[in-house]
Write a structure and sequence with these properties.
mainly alpha
Amino acid sequence: MTCPHHEDPGARIVREEGAKTDFSQDMSYGDYLQLDAVLNAQQPRSPDHNEMLFIVQHQTSELWMKLMLHELRAAVASVARDDLSSAFKMLARVSRIMEQLVHAWDVLATMTPPEYSAIRPYLSSSSGFQSWQYRCIEFMLGNKNAAMLGPHAHRPDLLAHVRTAYEAPSLYDEALRLLARRGLAVPASHVERDWTQPYRADDAVEQAWLAVYRDPKHHWDLYQLGEELTDLEDAFRLWRFRHVTTVERVIGFKRGTGGTSGVGYLRKMLDVVLFPEIWTLRTDL
């Protein structure tokens, strides 16, 4: 036994704090987080040092997207039942998650073109284009496209998740249905429709939002909802833009491993507007 007078200062602090150090019979931090599974999920296929960065960056992004989907599903349900206070908290969290995803590209951008070229042959046809979680996020935000179901057809379990998001009202659809329930003049074509179809902007919808923004005191929670949607799309645009610039920095204009034109395809996605009337109304205020 160590003499108290000669005890290591660090060990003494642990003893005095009463910190638990024996986990032979109790759940530990690693047990709770299942860290054995998480930390052994990185299996580089190439001999190159930099592949670990590529794997970890994408795996952590998928974990953030898992949380984003968790929050988005709950937010959509909250809007549908007029529980906006809960929805605001969830949507604010989603925007902060997107900030984390934006900064994740900063780390990947430290990979130089020769470093990526060393691992690219080992990726085969795998690509972030095939992320089923990302596709669910896009569908839940209203960017519906039936062709995007295809990459998941080989996995019926994953296809079911993606199809559910594809066939359900988006966050914006539910927001417009809420405006209609509050007596604002949202056209019937935007209250009940084929939810699998891409959203089409409508002047009458803009007028409904303008009524909210011109009298925010009377429509305070709807006004706040409009600004939460603005924050969300703002963050999403930054995520997309950072993705484009990182890809261009690392691979230039080579085709993507998933078969797309790479940077060219990603730039086209920058033009997609999720909540169009929320943006156009600002010109008319």
